[in-house]
Write a structure and sequence with these properties.
Elements (H helix, E strand, L loop, with lengths): L3 E4 L3 H12 L4 E4 L3 H8 L4 E2 L3 H7 L2 E4 L4 H9 L4 H4 L5 E4 L5 H15 L2 E4 L2 E2 L1 H7 L2 E6 L2 H14 E8 L3 H29 L7 H5 L7 H11 L9 H18 L4 H18 L18
Parallel strand pairs: 1-2, 1-4, 2-3, 4-5, 5-6, 8-9
Antiparallel strand pairs: 7-8
Length: 292
């Protein structure tokens, strides 16, 4: 498959590239922040000075950045991927992006330099990325998917193709409805447990066999109890995704009242200066002992 390119070496990018290297791939990496590129060299990533250089050195390029605008800049901006892209090459975008923009960018990249596009947003976080245990939701042509399916299988516990480019982003919005609203539900549940005087640490095991048991309850309830808000994702990204859910639902004529309420809570939370905390830090809004 040759050397793989990776653009975006933040929390998720670190997990991805460590996993790819552990599976025997060579990886060329770039990030807007030079210090991240230098740090990534420490675990074996070969540095590049621009997205264009990554594209010139690699036929398969993966991106994981924070917004739709960031993806567009990386791909089509000055020194972007499209300027060095190879006909027959492939861009795999693990970012969470606006559906219609994703479709448009896929068409544009093909027209500009002949590269294919797979949107492959993920769920699971940095630890799952490094362990190869992600859930990956993909959109792209069958031919493009077949080129990189072996890599997806190294990265994912679950890899599902939903249709052409853009389909993966629709699936990711479904995922985010379930996950991000659940952050708020868990916070409300924990506040009730603690106020009621029970040992909240027993809740995940006690409920595991019933309908309330879930991956998020098991993983995040203990962190909320410990007030462990070190980011594995950021509250600012939670709000960005909730706003994307709203926009997509509006365009489709689909109601999204629960996500709208969660977005309101995160908007207030972020306005208080907490946007760099983990999304589960929304519990601070429910915690009577927290000054927020």
């Amino acid at each position: 498959m040759g050397t793989l390119g990776f653009i975006g070496l933040g929390l998720m990018g670190e997990g991805f590239t460590r996993r790819l290297l552990a599976c025997g791939h060579e990886v060329v990496g770039y990030d807007l922040l030079p210090e991240r590129v230098a740090t990534a060299q420490g675990w074996g990533v070969e540095p590049a000075t621009s997205p264009q250089e990554v594209a010139e050195r690699c036929a398969i390029i993966m991106t994981c950045v924070t917004s739709t605008d960031a993806v567009e800049t990386v791909v089509f901006g000055k020194d972007g991927v499209s300027r060095g892209g190879q006909a027959g090459g492939l861009l795999v975008d693990f970012s969470t992006t606006v559906v219609e923009n994703t479709k448009s960018m896929a068409r544009r990249l093909k027209e500009d330099c002949g590269m294919g596009w797979i949107d492959a947003p993920v769920s699971g976080g940095p630890d799952a990325a490094q362990a190869g245990k992600l859930a990956i939701m993909a959109g792209g042509s069958q031919a493009d998917i077949s080129k990189v399916r072996p890599v997806f299988e190294e990265l994912a516990a679950s890899f599902t193709v939903f249709g052409p480019a853009g389909s993966g982003q629709v699936a990711k919005m479904v995922n985010q409805v379930l996950v991000l609203n659940n952050y708020v539900v868990l916070a409300e549940a924990l506040a009730l447990a603690e106020s009621g005087g029970i040992d909240a640490s027993k809740v995940p095991e006690a409920l595991a066999a019933g309908h309330a048991g879930s991956n998020l309850l098991k993983a995040n309830f203990p962190r909320m109890i410990a007030r462990d808000y070190g980011p594995k994702g950021y509250a600012r990204q939670v709000l960005k995704d909730l706003d994307m859910i709203h926009d997509l639902a509006k365009s489709l004529g689909t109601p999204s009242p629960m996500s709208a309420q969660a977005a309101t809570l995160y908007r207030v939370f972020n306005s208080k200066g907490h946007e760099e905390l983990d999304g589960i830090a929304i519990f601070k809004m429910f915690d009577p002992n927290d000054t927020i």
